[in-house]
Design a protein that fits this description.
Modulator protein, 19 strands, Metalloprtase-TldD/E_cen_dom, 2 domains, alpha+beta, Metalloprtase-TldD/E_N, PmbA, single chain, six-stranded antiparallel sheet, metallopeptidase activity
Amino acid sequence: MLTPKEAESRAADLVERARKAGADAADAIYVADASTGIQLRLGALEDVERSEGEEIGLRLFVGRRSASVSSSDLSDEALKALVERAAAMAREAPEDPYSGLAPEDRLMRGEGPDVDGDDGCDPLPTELKQRALEIEDAARAIAGVTNSGGASVSAGRSVIALATSHGFCRGYSTSGYSGSASVIAGEGAQMERDYAQHSARHYADLDAPDAIGRLAGERAVARLNPAKLASGAMPVIYDPRVGSSLIGHLIGAITGAAIARKTSFLLGKEEEAIFAESIVIRDDPHRPRGLRSKPFDGEGLPTAPADLVANGRVTSWLLDSASARQLGLAPTGHATRGVGGSPGASATNVHMEAGSIAVDDLLGDIAQGVYVTELIGQGVNMVTGDYSRGASGFIIENGKIGPAVSEITIAGNLIEMFRQLVPASDLEFRRAVNVPTIRIDGMFIAGA
């Protein structure tokens, strides 16, 4: 695998080729990945996978016309053909008044922050296999677990470099590790499945194998013997592992493309309090070892920590350069991209700040409600905010978590849900999007 400096050279060379071919402007992104994965079930190895690859993408501009091409063949002959194809495509493309590179005066200068995203570790496949065995053994040791869906452990590294004809050229590397288990509890028609998973940038930060396996087993057993729940309006408590999906809907609604296309349920609500005044939702691309930390965005702009929501209000849209031009605004350093196509926009490491209420107190006054641990389906209308998803979890009775419940539907509207949202005090940073336990009153539940 190339070093970041070598990757920068590859990207810069492709941009130079594009300029010599007559491009008015161009940018190139190089991405290389290498990963090893171990999958086993019932103690037997099912799969060992090793993958390595590199790709390069070119975006070429002729006036306001542009084309994007990519290749996994980085030979001199292939890159020459790539540039020729991109130039020919761009000359035939329709004009787009909003296309173009990021403003030159906004590009990142200097080296950027060190986000500590690569630990340089390269665990052997034998070590990964042993870790997977320990995960599954711990899960199967939980009383009530009767079968296994398997355990897996993976390790990987990526190198990313971006170069533009405006003079930007930077690269960085990241490492990534994960461990997971899925197990089954019960027998016959009474079987239930659940899982546990953890990902980290540094191998040393990955949860211990027995912790991952034990959690998977305990979750599966807890779902046995689900009870029936009558339909009606009641409070819903979101476990942190599913509550993060609510922030995902928010992020989708504040991206520049959604606003420019008028397909966001938040359109026209820039001045309104969407959440309670105490709610703060923060994006932090510089979090050390964060799963989405990066020094610059997909167009070469510097990234920076920022509140997406402060005092209950959305502070700004997430804008790449094209959507910013369309809206008459400035790009915000949130551009994202792959090797193919034009940039889009999204957030990085996002968290909702913890509230002041303990989880037990958040549940304490609920006579009947639902504690949701799994969501099913994609029933969210991003234009209207209407929300309807299959769910499972546990019934809350008189302030306590009671029997399991499954095959229910929870419904509402995201605007009203955000206004009703109350966070607990148990925030932990374990995912790319982190939230504490969340309570939302007045949601409609369709019982089984």
